[in-house]
Amino acid sequence: MRTPHEVTARRLNVVNRQGRWLPRVSGRPYTDGGMTGRVLACEACSVPRFGDGLAVDADLVRAAEAAAVAARTPLGGMNPDLACVFVCGGDPDQVAEALARASSVLRARTVIGCSASGVIGGSQGVEAASSVSVWAAVLPGVRVRAFHLEVIRTPEGMAVLGLPEGEETDEVAVVLADPFSFPADGFVEQANDALGLPIVGGMAAGHRGAGSTRLLLDNRVVDRGAVGVVLGGPVGAQAMVSQGCRPVGPDMTVTASEGNLLLRLAGVSAIQKLEQVLSSLSPEDQALASGGLQIGVALDEYVDEHQRGDFLVRGILGLDRTRAAIAIGDIVPVGRTVRFQVRDAASADDDLRAMLVQLRREFATVEGALLFSCNGRGTNLFTSADHDVLAMRQGLSTSGVAGFFAAGEIGPVGGRNHLHGFSAAVLVFGSQRTQLATRSA
Question: How far is CA 323 from CA 257, 336, 399, 417, in A?
Fold first, then answer.
């Protein structure tokens, strides 16, 4: 599901806490090779460093207490360095109470959290029911810097305030945002330069729409903007995104475009090309396309034949028949290669499991993970809301996995952060075999 900021203007400035415009972090361009966390040496750890808990209860405060206790239990009495709390509930005031209560019980150095349409933890996913999930992590030697981002209007456009200044030891950021008050798409685009880091996270949701989202930063609950953390030092983490699509039809060069409109593909009108591609598909793929066709923008123009995982997938927003154009959820310049994409449960499952196989090969040991799964997945795509979390735990042979069903997911594809829909964005912690290049499915 996309957020209200489907295609955000690029005129968004990112400002640090001292009010200075943030340039690119010197020496830290965000590229494929600059993403992974440093290997964490934790041979002395005799107990797990990650825990997760989930509780379903009509009393959200009671659920928050139970989930927080469950997440702390595996840690052997150690207080978490970072904890995340996710609450699904109808009443914003009750959600705020649950967030605050979980923070109090956790006794973590830093806590962030948000309201959501569903939560993930304890080997299960829960959708649209009164529930709380909690994730707790002990991160020896890791610097955790929390922030609350707010938006103001300036003569130059919108500005985002509150982002910490980048440091050379920074490795990854986690962001939880309110889709109604925070321009996540524009922020993520600009933060590629301002932070020079992988960003993982999701768009929160309140059950009553605008104004009902709640965000947690330590013991403070806010209703606007975004909260998050920057992790620095020996983090030992890697971010990936499973977009859950497979390509159909041929590669096509964009031969005319305007803004987010594709006007001509491979020398013919975009709608004519779409009709040609649809007519060439099997009946099964035609049925999938009719239920929600996507388009992928090739990450590497020099690949002979693009396959699944070689694209940044964007939504098709509609058709402009007066101009024979296709409106998409991004801006694609002339000369780029695109290909239509379809999504079904089998494709999404295959894509997720392929990503997990790659992760498992790259980590000597996986100890825990954050999971931000689209609210269009779960039972809207699979037979069970548990699908993604069970795949994560089984594929990575780990516990300590928690997260929420998001209204838009943040994560890296092709060496840059993006806001996605219908994806699963993950941040995996453990001991890596080598220093690795970023991969995004």
Answer: 11, 20, 52, 31
Distance of CA 67 to the CA centre of its chain: 23
If one counts the domains in the chain, the total is: 2
Domain that holds residue 112: 12-242+349-432
Query: Which has the closest alpha carbon to 441: 428, 429, 423?
Result: 423
User: 143 and 29, same structural domain?
Assistant: yes
Whether residue 283 lies inside any domain: the answer is yes
In angstroms, the Cα distances linking 380 to 38, 119, 385 are 37, 15, 8
The answer to the question of residue 438 being in a domain is no
DSSP codes joined into one string, 173-214: EEEEE-TTT--HHHHHHHHHHHT-S-EEEEE---TTSTT---
Q: CB of 118 within 8 A of CB of 404?
A: yes
Same domain, 49 and 80: yes
**Are 167 and 303 in a shared domain?**
no
Which of 294, 318, 342 is the last residue before a domain boundary? 342
The pair of three-digit structure tokens given for residue 409, joined into one six-digit string: 């997911």
Whether 265 and 327 share a structural domain: yes
pLDDT in tens, the chain (441 residues): 444 333 333 346 666 654 444 433 333 333 333 333 333 334 445 578 999 999 999 999 999 999 999 999 999 999 999 999 999 999 999 999 999 999 999 999 999 999 999 999 999 999 999 999 999 999 999 999 999 999 998 888 889 999 999 999 999 999 999 999 999 999 999 999 888 999 999 999 999 999 999 999 999 999 999 999 999 999 999 999 999 999 999 999 999 999 999 999 999 999 999 999 999 999 999 999 998 899 999 998 887 778 778 899 999 999 999 999 999 999 999 999 999 999 999 999 999 999 999 999 989 999 999 999 999 999 999 999 999 999 999 999 999 999 999 999 999 999 999 999 999 999 999 997 754 434 344
Q: Are 166 and 28 in contact (CB under 8 A)?
A: yes
Clarify whether residues 185 and 317 are in a common domain.
no
* Residue 216 shares a structural domain with residue 250: no
Last residue of a domain, one of 297, 326, 342: 342
